[in-house]
Design goal:
The structure is a single chain. This protein is an alpha/beta fold. It is built from twelve helices and 19 strands. It has two domains: 216 residues, Alpha-Beta Barrel (TIM Barrel); 123 residues, Lyase, Ornithine Decarboxylase, Chain A, domain 1. Helix content is 30%, strand content 23%. β6, α7 and β7 form a beta-alpha-beta unit.
Length: 364
């Protein structure tokens, strides 16, 4: 019997996923493990420590604060920062992180800071936009970078881009257009950059769908945690996380009585209601209320009823013979985070990365 809500993380499953993914890429291709957003909600420091033991030597995070946390946890490997902000550049140097330069403004500011500190050959990466249209240099701005900004103060380790539709069935015109655009960028870089940086474009889904485009490195995030955005690909992976909680109270409501804020659920018969100490402050959003979300209790699927509260949610236990303290499973290796989120028309990434730090992390 568990006594509090917990996220149980299976490290054997993490190792399985890493080994399965490593087997799909060429021995000479670098696997960059993405542990941003607190390791997709699983505790980025602990996940990075385990992956380092397994052989990962390159990591990536979104922002400098995440990299600083990993450094404090003893991660000494190369560490990319995908989206550095101007206010974080000092911290990047202090923690010996490798920033991604994605526009002229951030590039000039970082080079100016290196000059001020008399630092040379600092490792950086260059992000290019090939159609996703979030961040990154266009081909034209990339030429400006090499002609006007590039400096011996930086050491360009890699040039990369990001796919926007990598899980879509082939052939995919949009993805082909991105690959073609990246080939133009590679040609231009080889013409303008004498340091011979590495090139990479594949993410988790891309590793499964486009193995012929592995290039020098691949960036793998969600697949390490057990999801590959395709039912067939998912079969080769094991979700590493189980979210569960004890039922903290059970009470009866009469026909016609309501449950939760705004009378979100009205009993159509005498019912048994269970209370779970998880709510939207823990990452279980209000969209899962009113019968949308389901949880598992003693092997039976029961609905979340009423409006999800900040710290609690309610379930209908009328058909389940259980007691206070019985474990309710929100998702696990069988009814996965993808299964749970599908009912709310969203994805596993969202719930995993939204899980509150007040949920206890347990490793097995």
């Amino acid at each position: 019997m568990i006594k509090e809500a917990r996220l149980t993380i299976n490290l054997d499953s993490l190792a399985h996923n890493y080994n399965s993914l490593r087997s799909k890429i060429n021995p000479e291709t670098t696997l960059i493990a993405v542990v941003k957003a607190n390791g997709y909600g699983n505790d980025g420091a602990r996940i990075a420590q385990e992956l380092s033991k397994l052989g990962v030597a390159y990591f990536a995070v979104a922002y400098a604060i995440e990299g600083k946390i990993l450094r404090k946890a003893g991660i000494e490997d190369s560490l990319m920062v995908f989206y550095p902000q101007l206010a974080q550049l000092e911290q990047i140097i202090e923690s010996q992180l490798e920033p991604v330069l994605y526009n002229l403004e951030i590039s000039k500011a970082f080079i100016s800071l290196l000059k001020e500190k008399n630092i040379k050959n600092y490792p950086v990466h260059i992000k290019c936009n090939t159609g996703l249209n979030r961040i990154g240099f266009s081909l034209e701005n990339l030429e400006s970078f090499f002609k006007e900004v590039n400096s011996p103060l930086i050491d360009i380790k890699s040039i990369y881009s990001h796919l926007g539709f990598s899980e879509n069935p082939k052939p995919c015109a949009f993805t082909k257009k991105q690959f073609d655009a990246f080939e133009l960028i590679k040609s231009k870089v080889k013409e303008l950059c004498p340091s011979h940086p590495k090139f990479h474009i594949l993410n988790s889904s891309g590793v499964f769908n486009y193995p012929e485009h592995q290039l020098d490195a691949v960036r793998i995030g969600i697949a390490l945690y057990g999801f590959a955005n395709n039912p067939e690909w998912n079969k080769t992976l094991k979700p590493i996380a189980k979210l569960s909680s004890p039922i903290c109270q059970i009470h009866f409501v009469k026909k016609g009585e309501s449950v939760g804020y705004n009378q979100g659920w009205i009993a159509t018969k005498e019912s048994r209601i269970g209370i779970i100490p998880l709510g939207h402050a823990d990452g279980i959003g209000r969209q899962y209320g009113n019968g949308v979300g389901k949880v598992n209790v003693l092997g039976q699927t029961v609905p979340i009823i009423g409006n999800v509260c900040m710290d609690l949610l309610m379930i209908d236990l009328t058909s389940v013979d259980c007691t206070v303290g019985t474990e309710a499973i929100i998702f696990d290796q069988n009814f996965t985070a993808s299964d749970f989120t599908a009912s709310a028309n969203t994805i596993s990434y969202e719930i995993l990365t939204s899980l509150s730090p007040r949920i206890k992390r347990v490793y097995v």
